[in-house]
Specification:
Strand order of the largest sheet: 3-2-1-4-5-6
Structural class: alpha/beta
Number of helices: 8
Bound molecules: adenosine-5'-triphosphate, nicotinate mononucleotide
Distance between the termini: 48 Å
Family: Belongs to the NadD family.
CATH superfamily: HUPs
GO biological process, one term: NAD+ biosynthetic process
CATH class: Alpha Beta
Radius of gyration: 17 Å
GO molecular function: ATP binding; nicotinate-nucleotide adenylyltransferase activity
Helix content: 25-40%
InterPro entries: Cyt_trans-like (IPR004821), NadD/NMNAT (IPR005248), Rossmann-like_a/b/a_fold (IPR014729)
Order of helices and strands: EHEHEHEHEHHEHH
Number of strands: 6
Keywords: ATP-binding, NAD, Nucleotide-binding, Nucleotidyltransferase, Pyridine nucleotide biosynthesis, Transferase
CATH architecture: 3-Layer(aba) Sandwich
Length: 214
């Protein structure tokens, strides 16, 4: 059977329960041999990060401590100075892991809606599959036509993603978790303890290190 790695990139500022649900959904669908988490160092489309790379990595280690598959927290983007372009990361991973491994980059639907704005987005398909998972309010008719065209051309089953190295897309519509890092940062800054939205060890870490205005 082909080796399959599910990749979850993100700002993780902070990591929260929807990230865990997203990863869990990918693991359930694909049954990968590894789950690799890629915290961004410089997410160029966002206004900027609040917590440091080291703190975001520490929170990811706490959040993903107990998973049914081996987890790697891959810090390469945190240590890179330039913009965190996923295509650069995927090129490095391909060089390291070889042409045969199935790589599946997992994204939430908000990123699918702007996939055509990613750096060299058409090159992604020669490097990875894409598994996009819905978020509350996701409206498939709002997909940019170029993204909708790729989705139509490349749509495949989880088994097909597992059994080929790259080039396919899968849209999973059965997740609707209304949690965002923005909402959590706002709640913390207002003195709330959003324990329903993130794992308790992560919340403890945030409070111990006085992150996000705590
Ligand atoms: N509630 C959610 N449901 C599905 N996917 C999600 C959800 N929250 C985040 N994701 C996905 O997880 C990945 C990393 O997201 P990110 O770290 O930017 O979290 P976020 O909550 O979207 O952050 P922010 O509120 O700061 O924009 C992205 O692909 C994003 O689409
Ligand atoms: O490569 C790009 O141009 C690009 C543009 C936007 C987002 N991404 C990646 O998508 C993942 C989720 O991003 P975000 O901003 O939702 O945390 C993360 O790995 C980002 O580096 C990548």
């Amino acid at each position: 059977m082909r080796h399959c790695i599910a990749l979850l990139g993100g700002s993780f500022d902070p990591v929260h329960n929807a990230h865990l649900a997203l990863a869990g959904h990918a693991v359930k669908l694909l049954g990968p041999e590894e789950l690799r988490i890629l915290p961004a160092g410089n997410p160029w489309q966002k206004g900027g990060l609040v917590a440091s790379g080291a703190d975001r990595v520490a929170m990811l280690r706490l959040a993903f401590a107990h998973q049914p598959v081996p987890v790697v927290i891959d810090e390469r983007e945190v240590h890179r100075n330039d913009a965190s372009y996923t295509v650069d990361t995927l090129r490095e991973l391909r060089d390291e892991l070889g042409p045969e491994v199935s790589l599946v980059f997992v994204i939430g639907a908000d990123q699918l809606l702007k996939l055509d704005t990613w750096h060299r987005w058409q090159d992604l398909f020669g490097l990875t599959h894409i598994l996009a998972v819905s978020r509350p309010g996701f409206d498939i008719t709002a997909l940019p036509s170029a993204v909708a065209r790729e989705l139509q051309r490349r749509q495949a089953s989880a088994a097909q993603l597992r059994e080929s190295p790259c080039g396919l897309m899968l849209l999973a519509l059965n997740l609707a978790i209304d949690v965002s890092a923005t909402g959590i940062r706002d709640a913390l800054a207002h003195g709330q303890r959003p324990l329903r939205d993130l794992p308790e060890p992560v919340l403890d870490f945030i409070e111990q290190h006085h992150l996000y205005g705590t």
